Sequence to fold (224 residues):
Amino acid sequence: MNELKKIKYPTINAVATAIAVYEYNGRKIVRDPVTDTAGTKILPNRQLITDCLAGQTSAFIVNDFHVKQAEGIIQYLQQTVIMQSLQNKVDRFLSQMTELVTNQEITNKDIGIIAWAPHVADQYQKKDHVREISARYEHRSRYVGKVGDKIVTDFTMIEKRYIKSMDCWAVYGYDSNDNLIFYWAKVADKICEVGKISGRIKAHNEDKFRGNAHVTTLNYVKVI
Fold:
């Protein structure tokens, strides 16, 4: 086992392989072998990466495009850690991963962490995208109507997040006048991406996580 841990691979190759495996497994991190509904066995990302780097035949291809993506992900993770450091909010797992991917080589024991690199980059990029879009409306947003009013409004979704503890979706977006709107959706049918919704105004709040933007919270929302 100690000998196995000493086997080293170029980090860029390991990250490129992690990206190819992530795509192959449906942009998911598989931790343990599973069998899908068609009876196909899906192997863990870590195992597929390890086997590929060891030269075993694989069902996926690692090409120059994956290498370019790997370079971009490594740079992005480094920039994300720097930004978190400036805010004194560094995520320990992200920091550990970034330290690994900035080394020239990794060992077999590091592959379990490397396997998460494309997924972690995906999640942070999605958050960045949401912040970028949200920022366009934060200073323009005004409260809609009065608390208790029933309204019908155009709605464009910025973000939806499933909150496990609440067993429902948090839906956040804006109306045709660039006013920010938030509501909870118990079922997927109440999640509106682009369209019209009706609901009752529950509250007007300044969102401290979004530059103290004026956000109108709705209740009893229906997609029209």
